[in-house]
């Protein structure tokens, strides 16, 4: 157990819908990272927050957005869902200032299925 | 640079053999190289990492070596066991060192 929690574990929804994925970082970690992993694919970096502020952005679609709240938990919002959005979504956290040299610890992931 | 190349994509070995996975990176200033193990349907787990001030790091049956001149780093697993079967990802800092860029993964299969 890495100490990073994610809810829900599974999510099944229809095309066009909107969902929210939630992540709580390890105690003491200030940075949260979101990744997308499609079937048999690698980890695609979406976005990173540090202490409530956006720090880095990857290949995140405009239909996706995220935020980090004062208690440091983060939410990833996915809207106008398409079949191709079906994937595992991982959250990771790190203790440092958000530099990529910080060790990242991954949560268990949310499996999103869009029908 | 944004690219991290990882080879091979699949690797099959017999139990007890050694396994080596290699990654190359673009940015010569990169200074942190973690390796993650991911079992089917589970989260990536950090198994070992190395920073650029050392050339090798070892933890029991796992070791990582770094060649900064050639800009590549490798994961070495000795005395492989069936439970080592998983997908292994390397990573290196991306442009501006604001994120990690992951390799495409190596599926390791250890046969009894």
Oligomer: heterodimer
Largest interface: A-B, 23 and 25 residues
Major β-sheet profile of chain B: 6 strands, mixed
Q: Quick check: average pLDDT of chain A? A: 93
Provide a brief overview of the structure.
With 115 residues, chain A is mostly beta strands. Chain A contains no helices and eleven strands. In chain A, strands 2, 4, 5, 6, 9, 10 and 11 form a seven-stranded mixed beta sheet that branches. Chain A has a four-stranded antiparallel beta sheet with strand order 1-3-8-7, with no helix packed on it.
Tell me about this structure.
The complex is a heterodimer of chains A (115) and B (112). Helices cover 0% and strands 50% of the residues of chain A. Chain A has 115 residues and is mainly β. Chain A has strands at 5-7, 10-13, 19-24, 31-37, 44-50, 53-57, 64-68, 74-78, 87-94, 105-106, 110-114. Chain A contains no helices and 11 strands. Chain A starts with a strand and ends with a strand. In chain A, the strands form 2 sheets. In chain A, strands 2, 4, 5, 6, 9, 10 and 11 form a 7-stranded mixed sheet that branches. In chain A, strands 1-3-8-7 form a 4-stranded antiparallel sheet, with no helix packed on it. Helices cover 0% and strands 56% of the residues of chain B. Chain B has no helices and 11 strands. Chain B has strands spanning 4-7, 10-14, 19-25, 32-38, 45-51, 56-59, 62-67, 72-77, 86-93, 100-102, 106-111. In chain B, strands 2, 4, 5, 9, 10 and 11 form a 6-stranded mixed sheet that branches. The radius of gyration of chain B is 13 Å and the shape is globular. Chain B starts with a strand and ends with a strand. Classes of the chains: A mainly beta (115), B mainly beta (112). At the A-B interface, strand 10 of A face strand 4, strand 5 and strand 10 of B.
